[in-house]
Amino acid sequence: MVEIIPLWVVNLLSFITVFSVMAAIGTTIVPSVFIQHLRSPFLLIRGLINVLVIVPIVGFATTFAFGLSLPERVGVVLMVIAPGAPLALRRALGSGGDAGFAPTLQIAVAILAVPAVPLWVVVGNWILGTHGFADAMAVARQVFLAQLLPLALGAIVRRVASARGARIGRVLGRVGAFLLIAALISILVNVRYSILLTHFWPIVCVAITTIAALAAGHILGSPSPEIRHAMAIAGAMRNLGLALLVATANQTPPEVEVVIISYVITAVVIVSVYIVWWTKDNTRNFGRGRLP
């Protein structure tokens, strides 16, 4: 990848973006609602199955179905086994996802990613004939710094200064939105040539996996349309940071990184189309006086 903008600048900007967005979301979390979903975990378990089990299985299957090369398979696999994209929570909440269920699922996925990612790497080695590894402590550190810590800080601000907490959350949300645009531009500047190198079939695999994740979440989240929506987006959007963490630790070839970046872009496009469809369909159904 050609580094027109230094990689450390991109990484720093991305981290600050995720931290501010997650902290802003933290100021909206209501602990009692979180506990309620833990006490009645049926929907939460279904969401976890979608994010941690169904999506990886579909991803593995598509890489073989379309005969990808080993680096292409590794790139797709690293994304499907990396759950809990931080910005997925922002997309879900910003487009009408359940405000209690979405953060609960995100936190549960983030915690379970610590054992799940190394376990899926072992499974991937067996299936692909590779010899990769994932450090559970490194996964835990990234999950804590990028998700759990800012969410906790936001929740603390809400509790300590409830009047100012909402205002602080709005400010952080605006800052996060601005930084997100800047981070995306910096990443696209660096990877624009790499994107052109992506082959057709890995994109097909990504599209099928993402659509399957959306469909599974939409089905498993029934009957609530807001929970369906949150569950679908949580499954479809994967964790770029965790995928790159494992790829970097294993010194994978450049083709793997190309597929990883292409996966993110393809998934974002498909999820954006899904959000537009869901919003219109949900609005139309409410206008008719019924739920979807």
Offer a quick outline of the entry:
The chain is mainly α. It has helices spanning 7-26, 31-39, 42-65, 70-80, 86-94, 101-128, 136-160, 162-196, 200-220, 225-236, 240-249, 254-287.
The run of helices and strands is HHHHHHHHHHHH
Question: What is the level-2 CATH architecture name?
Answer: Up-down Bundle
Overall spatial form? globular
Protein structure class: mainly alpha
CATH topology: Na+/H+ antiporter like fold
Strand element count: 0
Question: What is the CATH top level name?
Answer: Mainly Alpha
Q: How much is the radius of gyration in Å?
A: 18 Å
Q: How many H/I helices?
A: 12
Q: Major β-sheet, in short?
A: none
Ends: how far apart? 44 Å
How many structural domains does the protein architecture include?
1
Please provide a written account of the structure.
- The chain is mainly alpha-helical.
- The protein has one domain: Na+/H+ antiporter like fold (Up-down Bundle).
- It is 82% helix and 0% strand.
- The chain has helices spanning 7-26, 31-39, 42-65, 70-80, 86-94, 101-128, 136-160, 162-196, 200-220, 225-236, 240-249, 254-287.
- The radius of gyration is 18 Å and the shape is globular.
- The N and C termini lie far apart (44 Å).
- The mean pLDDT is 84.
Helix/strand layout:
Layout: H1 7-26, H2 31-39, H3 42-65, H4 70-80, H5 86-94, H6 101-128, H7 136-160, H8 162-196, H9 200-220, H10 225-236, H11 240-249, H12 254-287
List keywords for this structure.
292 residues, mainly alpha, Na+/H+ antiporter like fold, 12 helices, 82% helix, globular
